[in-house]
Amino acid sequence: MLAILIGLTIGILLPMQTSVNSRLRQVVGSPFVASFLSFTVGTIFLSLLLLLTGQSFGFDGSVIQEGPGWMWIGGLLGVLFLTGNILLFPRLGSVQTVIMPIFGQILMGLLIDHFGWFNSVEHPITVLRLFGVVLVLFGVIGTVALSDWLNRRRGKLVVSMETDTGNLNLWRLFGIFTGMMSATQTAINGYLGTVLESALKGALVSFVVGTLALLLILLVSRQPVPLGQLKGQPWWIWLGGIIGALFIGGNVLIVPIVGTGIAVIIVIVGLLCGSLLIDRFGWFGAKKNPVTGVQLVSLVVMVIGIVLIRLS
């Protein structure tokens, strides 16, 4: 039960991070600069948590020598997922940018659990488990796509896409791929936290790798970091990195307990709940939108799906 609460909480926080980082991107003028600042803040936050909990920054050298090489690339996959969303949004629109990666996350999460990839505990796919997944997917579509369709009918939503229809399927496949990489990152970071015997250390390593990757991108592209433009901005503009750190750390904690597939699905439900809260109350400068009955029913359907998956 604790793992479910943690998963829902970090999922609810994730769209808040997106809203904060969107504001940060507007101020600094570059998604990569904003991401670099967010990752840097998250790295500092995790480092302070490590010090406050009395843990050391070091770990046994045998972990590097004997551990699989893939356990260090979680941060790179996080950067890939972030960059993928940046590329997808203007081409697919907001709805498909949410749905395609979610489909990829659920698919990869089930495969990882079924085959025990990345040293995960095997959870074979059963009929009940598949039915639960179908309910979750229906819930996602109802929460995002049906509400989008209703808003279009009411003339409240305008979506522009910067690509022709001939390339849409390729971008949709790319969206599914980025979602699969996100689920892979979840599994890898969960294993890393277990090997290092610390969820905080596992999350910190992932953030350091992501920060260094983004720094390299900025150096190669010669993009400056305009810190002067951040003066006078609201204090919450720095929360994105902290929320990201809590998100990664929470995943590191729950994956060994419930498995990658269930962890991904629980977080997705929390993510959609957080999105509805931001829309309802207009947090972090977002435009207020009423929560519809279709969205509430869809959330209930997703919860039923999670229960069926958990019981299978």
TrEMBL record:
Q: What is the lineage of its organism?
A: Bacteria, Bacillati, Bacillota, Bacilli, Bacillales
Q: Which organism is it from?
A: Exiguobacterium profundum
Q: Where are the transmembrane segments?
A: 32-52, 72-92, 98-118, 130-150, 170-192, 204-223, 235-254, 261-278, 290-311
Q: Which Pfam families match?
A: DMT_YdcZ
Question: Protein name, please?
Answer: DMT family transporter
Name the InterPro entries on file. YdcZ (IPR006750)
Ordered alphabetically, the record's keywords are:
Membrane, Transmembrane, Transmembrane helix
